[in-house]
Amino acid sequence: MKRRLLSRSSSQPIITQVRGGVIRDNKGEWILGYNRFLGECSIAIAELWGVLDGLLILQKQGYDEVIIQSNNIENVISINDNKMGDSKNSLIRRIQQVLAFEKKWSLNYAPRDTNQVADALAKRALSSTESLNIIEDPPLEIKKILDLINLLLTRF
Predict the structure, then answer these.
(1) How confident is the model at residue 134 (pLDDT cuts 50, 70, 90)?
(2) Angle at CA 95, nearest 5°, toward 92 and 99?
(3) Could you write out the three-class secondary structure of the chain?
(4) CA–CA separation, 150 vs 86, rounded Å?
């Protein structure tokens, strides 16, 4: 019998995690997607990886003005409220560094139900052998979600 010892201060369960994200222009059109298979970690850590991956991709692409949305309110508050370097979490500190460097970037909370595309991209990471995947063209099931969102937006 194999045993693993996980020492944590959080009560969050450790389960296999995947994360995904989508980068869209100011009209909501697909630019690119990404996903990552993380293995076993907490939900909060997985969410932080999703934010950091998105930030680093955007930074590499050279975008000037960016609004990052996350459906994890606790992480958004921790990242936005903590003073630079005060957090004990290295992922939060790294995200804060990127945001401090990119003056016209902001991180906001977005309700989970507005995040269907990112959730669908994350599920695709379960069948991947790579840790980080960049998806240039939306897969068919993602395109269907985007079309539905655009249809709903044009009605209002």
Answers:
(1) very high
(2) 135
(3) CCCCCCCCCCCCCCEEEEEEEEEECCCCCEEEEEEEEEEEECHHHHHHHHHHHHHHHHHHHCCCCEEEEECCHHHHHHHHHCCCCCCCCHHHHHHHHHHHHCCCEEEEECCHHHCHHHHHHHHHHHHCCCCEEEECCCCHHHHHHHHHHHHHHHHC
(4) 41
Tokens matching residue 134? 């960049």
Locate the domains of the chain by residue range: 15-155
Q: What is the pLDDT of residues 68-82, one digit of tens each?
A: 988 889 999 999 986
Q: Topology of domain 15-155, per CATH?
A: Nucleotidyltransferase; domain 5 (3.30.420)
Q: Given the DSSP bridges, would you call strands 66-70 and 105-109 parallel, antiparallel or unpaired? A: parallel
CA distance 33 to 47: 15
Distance CA 125, CA 9 (A): 28
- Rounded Cα–Cα distance for residues 79 and 76 (Å): 5
Quick one: pLDDT at residue 53?
A: 94
What residues form DSSP beta bridges with 6? none
